[in-house]
Amino acid sequence: MTVAPTPGPLEKTPHEPTRTNMKRIIWILSGLALLAAGPATTASERKTEAETRRTAVPRLRFTGDRFAQQATAIFAETLQDMRNKIEDGSSERFPAGFFHTSTEPEGVPQYYNDMWTRDCGRGVIELSRLGFADEARTISRYFLAHITHGDHWGRELHTPAPHVELDGNALVLAGICSAWRAGGMDRDLGREFCDGIAPVVSWVDSLMQASPYGGLLPSTSELSGNPSTDYPVYSIFGNYGIYTAMAQIADMAAASGRTELAAQAARIRSSMERALARLVSDGGFSYAPAGCWFNGIDSRNGRAYDISDWDGTSWPTWHWTRQLPYILHYDYLSPRADGPFADIHAASYRLLRHWMARGEYFRKYGFVSNTGWTGMGGRHDETMCGYGQGFFTQAALLADDVNVYTKCLEGIARLGYDGGVIEQMSYEKNPFVMHECFNYDNYEKGLDHTFGVHSEGRREIMENPGDEGNLVQEAEILKAFSIVAGIRCEGRRLTLMPRLPWLWDTMECVDWPVVDAEGRTHRIRVKVDHQRWLRRCTVELEGIGGFEAADLRVGPFPRLLKAPEGYETELIGNASWIWVRNIRGDKQTITVEL
Known about the structure:
Oligomer: single chain
Strand content: 5-15%
CATH architecture of the largest domain: Alpha/alpha barrel
Low-confidence stretches: 1-46
Structural class: alpha+beta
Order of helices and strands: EHHEHHHHHEHHEHHHHHHEEEEEEEEE
Distance between the termini: 4 Å
Radius of gyration: 24 Å
Strand order of the largest sheet: 1-13-9-8-7-2
CATH topology of the largest domain: Glycosyltransferase
Helix content: 25-40%
């Protein structure tokens, strides 16, 4: 095996133009083109380079099997659909920063006139991750101007319902922090955001102080299994969300000079870390096996909340996708399922993988079940594109479980692509945009798989067209694709960990935004080309010169792999990976040959 960077150590060839010279050439050609076209534009009509970089749209392309092609279109169309939901202030009805939960006010169900906090928080995180700093900042300011209950947000931003939806608050807080980072970590913006969220952090603090369960916080939410009850659950997903959000708040506050808020957030995070240990099963308190997360504690009796109570129906919640909270790490903390709960994360993932493998639709098509194939008792389809397919796909990717994430990405491609539908039954405008709910039996018949039925097939599910473009569902899918790309800044170093399925041959990211430790956004290009027939992988990198260095993980390769001399090989499950460290320079091509 050879691992050969080209050309030279990290030097340009004599004939390769420097970045500055290339810019001069572009400027000269641009000037000639303008002279040929007619009068020059004024300075106010031209965008500066910084504006162009800020407004660039990241592109992501896959090739290989047909699912790679479908995934390419799904990413592009879903990203644009999410951006279309943002109001810029030109509407008389909706002010700037209003973020629609549904794509259009058509069909049933739809939430076009609503801003669900869970959906919008996740949406802002993904907008920030993908470089849309201006939009993320505008929506964040809208959040702060509409704190539903004075010191925290409700389930819907404009509806003062009595629900304490913990995960919604956690995601909005994380979204605001993400917007600050994407906007350059500006000190004044940080202070504005810190002052705005201070009442919410104090609300979390007060709930923690009053908690009968060691600091765990109550929630009434879809992600706790009790969205329609009049009692809360002290659940894993929302509490873990607060745990991860407080790390972001502490860092933003410290960088912005809000030392008291930074200390408060750090204290809450430390207390929450201890409290989360109460949600680890001992094999007796909950149905969940020992060493796994269980869903939560029932506020009525202090018992494990293992069975849902949801609009008159119920199902087991001790093995559903909410038991994979480590997927929240990728928003800020780590590209892996690591940290103090690493063993619990791993055990919980193995439990959910076991339940997924029980379902024929997962084995055949890669479709994930929200509930581990136990069904939702007649309410609606037992998956959602984000909470089910998105959550489990992200979990498999972060676990580097190549066979499983390959299957999950196939499922995303199938669910997002409606080109195989023969009989359309639901409201449909884009064959590449994710819906909320799905019907597996319909898929096999060539019918609209976003549409439910009454008492037909092997599941009792109600009629549910699935809400095309439901915000949180599509945002979780965009996050999954971002994990596939695997591009992050760790300190002052660029970390590249692309995670391609076995049969996806290439991945190309263009204008992909990466925020460094100082808040500067770099737009980079990464192309991964697997030529498996030659047992070779080539990675092209451009625009990486602004980082101290880059570390690249190449793969996946077969488990049986001879370690190349001088390079680090990592064995995870059924795949091997090769690390190429300390890549320097602005433009490099790395070739790995087996």
